[in-house]
Amino acid sequence: MARKETSENPGRLKQIALTYKMTKKVDSKVGLVVAGVGIVTFGVLLAIGFWIDHPIYLGILGFLLAFLAMAIVFGRRAERAAFGQMEGQPGAAAAVLDNIGRGWTTTPAVAMNRNQDVVHRAVGKAGIVLVGEGNPNRLKGLLAAEKKRMARIVAEVPVHDIVVGTGEGQVPLKKLRTTLLKLPRVLPGAQVTVVNDRLRALGDLMSNMPIPKGPMPKGMRMPKGR
Question: Residues 159, 130: contact at Cβ < 8 Å?
Fold first, then answer.
């Protein structure tokens, strides 16, 4: 048991170090900010401890809270840096959808055109969510066609469409997961399963979608559900 814990700790530390290096490339001040948060948190609690004549207790509490605050700040800045690097990359939205959490089934690239504008699909208790990446004007046709295709078998299920981007009416990549999780839940779990089964009955999604001419786009993955 002790050997297992010893082998796991270096792995975690190595992962944290790697995350820090990747974050620092995008956010050069991450180290100073995280350290500053820790020092200020610890200093404030320690000062309160001296003021109420309990420096040891408040010092220990300050150390724990400082560590927690540093972890939270570092996590948020690391996440922001990761989204910043992913922004505009093909398949970035699919990567976010694939990690949205339990209760959702995601299928990347259910529709695509020769300009490599692509539509992904997520199914959960909020219904069906179509997420488009690419040119907003061209995506309108792709989204409309996919809605029409699905309407034949899941006409009663709410369908939401989202275009990922920074323009007006679009959803930034970093807010995509939050946007989906905020959608009202209108379907029971059993119906979500039925909807997924019906959508699978449409056939092989990869063979049905229009493949662009030329080499396969980088980062393209076979559709999968979970």
Answer: yes
Q: Tell me phi and psi for residue 172, to 5 degrees.
A: -60, 150
String of b and e for 10-29 (b: at least 16 CB within 10 Å)?
eeeeeeeeebbeebeeeeee
Q: How far is Cα 73 from Cα 71, in angstroms, rounded to an integer?
A: 6
0.85 exceeded by pTM? no
Closest CA to 92 of 48, 38, 132, 151: 132
| 226 residues of the chain, pLDDT tens digit each | 445 444 455 577 777 777 777 777 777 888 888 899 999 999 999 999 999 998 899 999 999 999 999 999 888 887 777 666 666 666 778 878 877 878 888 888 888 888 888 899 999 999 999 999 888 899 999 999 989 888 888 888 899 999 988 888 888 888 888 888 899 998 888 888 888 888 887 644 454 544 444 444 545 444 444 4
Retrieve residue 102's tokens. 């339990």
